[in-house]
Each structure stands twice: as C-alpha cells, then as structure tokens.
Amino acid sequence: MKTIIQLYVIILILRSKSVYSKAILSEFKVSAIHELLRKGGWNCTDVIDYFIKRAVTYNPIIKALINFNPKAQIEAYDLDKFYHEKNVFKGQLHCIPFIIKDNIDVAGLPTTGGIKALRYSIPNKDAPVIDKLRKEGAIVIAKANMAEMAV
C-alpha cells in the first residue's frame, strides 16, 4: 500500500506544471533555469517548488537532507518581485537552488556538523560563503546530512 501511495504522489508531481520543462530542468544547469525564467513560462517560485518537491519525494528514501529552509519560497517570491520590477536578474545565480552541508552556517537553520547535541545550535548570520551565494541570488533549500564533525 505504501508503494502505491508513493507512486501516486510521484505521478501527481510529474503531471504538475513543475515538469512542463522537465527535460530542461533535468540538466540542472544554471543556464537552463535562467532560460525558463526569461521565457516567462516559469517564475522563481515555480523553480524552487519543483526542487523542494523532488527533495521531499526522494529524501525519505535516500535520507540525505536534515533541515529544509522554511524561507526558501519567500526568498523565491522576493526574487520574482525583483525580476518583474527591474527586468534583470539579481546576480549570476538568480533563483538557483542549492543544498549545503550541515557544517556551514545558514542563518535560522541548525548547524550540527553531524552532532546530535548541536541540533539546537542556530546561527543568527550566514557563513561568508552563503552570504556571497545569496548576494548572487542563490537560494538555500536544505542542509545535507553528514558524518560527525565532517570526519
């Protein structure tokens, strides 16, 4: 029964708008995502929704992600607003979703470094690398699991 439900969910996802250009998105290239945004068939919110749905669908099987960014869709909406107002991308990584290892600080998300005792350690600012990526328009969608202390 569980397998049937999982297949049904996958079919629903595949039939949604999110896979209108799945051939392009399956390449996972910055240029492919930017092409979708420029053509106007998709917006940043659609792109982020697509990747979050994929992550939520497959994470129970591969167990690679431990914390999802609850603000990812809000950040996508803000980028959509920016693009519609200025008709330019915020940066070279405009609306590019990414997952970061759990030993890199992301404001508002726990940074555990694979140590359970640190699950409540929530930084109030981004690591410099995250700050640079966000300034270019990239969006953190989740943090990836890792071995304890990155060993």
The total number of structural domains is 1
Q: What form results from the Cα inertia axes?
A: globular
Catalogue the unreliable spans: 6-15
Number of strands: 3
- Total number of helices: 6
Helix content: 40-55%
Distance between the termini: 39 Å
Biggest sheet strand line-up: 1-3-2
Strand fraction equals 5-15%
Largest sheet: 3 strands, mixed
Which structural class fits the helix and strand makeup? mainly alpha
SSE succession: HHHHEHEHE
Describe the structure.
The protein is mainly alpha-helical. It has one domain (2-150). The chain has 6 helices and 3 strands. The protein has helices spanning 2-15, 22-25, 30-39, 44-62, 72-86, 128-135; strands spanning 65-68, 97-101, 139-144. Strands 1-3-2 form a 3-stranded mixed sheet, with helices on both faces. Helix 6 links the parallel strand 2 and strand 3 (139-144). The protein is globular and about 45 Å long. It starts with a helix and ends in a 7-residue tail after the last strand.
